[in-house]
Write a structure and sequence with these properties.
Largest sheet: 5 strands, mixed
Structural class: alpha+beta
Distance between the termini: 55 Å
Order of helices and strands: HHHEEEEHHEHEHHEEEEEEEE
Helix content: 25-40%
């Protein structure tokens, strides 16, 4: 079926270069505008392979697209309940204490376009303009967002989940990939990490995610626990602590002084999020010399950690 839609803004850009391409604005120009709209639709609809950073950190879109900064509070829970008498007027106050922080929002950009030869060939043959250029632009933006989620960007003051300064460290034996490290040792380390989150948060946060490198994941999934009827570390651990999901990311390798890290945490948007005021967005085409260029933008504020007691990390896994 012929694609009938087009953007008037795209049409305006085409009219700028139409004389050089010998387009008739009432026919060829409209056809090219329809082709651009078709490509943009295909790019939005393209299913991208999952990126680990966008899996490890929940995404928040609460900040409006136009914002240049956003202010948030990092909290620690305080207050305890108690038994009270009838008509008591001294109920204990359960509250949160926090420090106010302000972070900047930054633009992330890429673009794709079509030159004279591509536009002329498309109009002559009626063939669709290739969507792969738009897919590449979208992929490049999402890869950068993925990196921001994991390790941030020091040039812009962004931290990721792997190097956020407010994440506490738990000491473990580590060196899980070493052939001499037993399954029992790894199991003990996982239990230590799990309990660290419970203890530091006074059971307010229950871990549901373990993030490790692919090598650490392989060790956890293959090494066996003694006296367990052949169960792997992960089988044994999840039987004792159900509800924990293991995710792996190459970006967790070498991020702490060259050492690999592991993260145990309660993955929840209330605890942490990647601020994404604008997801991937394609703007109207622009006429640049003899090319139609489609600018692509996203906006991010990096990873915000609202409740640092919901997560711990281990170095040297």
């Amino acid at each position: 079926m012929e694609h009938m839609n087009y953007d008037e803004a795209d049409m305006a850009a085409i009219s700028v270069i139409a004389p050089e391409l010998n387009f008739r604005s009432d026919e060829d120009g409209v056809m090219t505008a329809r082709q651009l709209d078709y490509v943009k639709t295909r790019v939005y609809e393209q299913v991208m392979p999952p990126l680990t950073g966008l899996q490890l950190v929940p995404v928040s879109t609460e900040v409006p697209e136009w914002a240049e900064t956003f202010t948030w509070r990092m909290y620690d829970e305080v207050g305890m309940a108690k038994f009270v008498a009838n008509y008591a007027d001294d109920l204990p106050r359960a509250d949160v204490q926090g420090t106010e922080q302000t972070s900047r929002i930054k633009d992330i950009g890429a673009s794709y376009g079509y030159n004279i030869a591509e536009l002329r060939a498309s109009n002559a043959t009626g063939a669709n303009l290739p969507a792969r250029k738009g897919n590449a632009a979208r992929r490049s933006i999402e890869q950068l967002l993925n990196r921001v989620a994991l390790v941030g960007d020091t040039d812009y003051g962004f931290y990721g989940i792997a190097n956020h300064p407010n994440i506490g460290e738990t000491t473990i034996t580590g060196d899980w990939g070493n052939a001499a490290t037993t399954g029992d040792t790894i199991l003990a380390d996982l239990i230590t990490l799990y309990n660290a989150v419970l203890n530091q948060s006074f059971d307010n946060h229950v871990p549901n995610t373990l993030a490790v490198t692919p090598e650490a994941r392989a060790a956890i999934a293959t090494k066996r626990v003694s006296d367990s009827n052949g169960k792997t570390v992960w089988q044994f651990f999840t039987e004792q602590y159900p509800g924990v999901e293991m995710l792996s990311s190459r970006e967790l390798a070498g991020v702490e002084g060259g050492e690999d890290i592991a993260l145990m945490y309660e993955r929840n948007a209330d605890n942490m999020s990647l601020e994404l005021p604008m997801a991937f967005n394609q703007l109207a085409a622009q006429a640049r010399n003899l090319e139609l260029v489609v600018p692509c933008l996203a906006r991010s504020g990096g990873v915000t950690l609202y409740y640092p007691l919901s997560i711990t990390k281990a170095v040297g896994v």
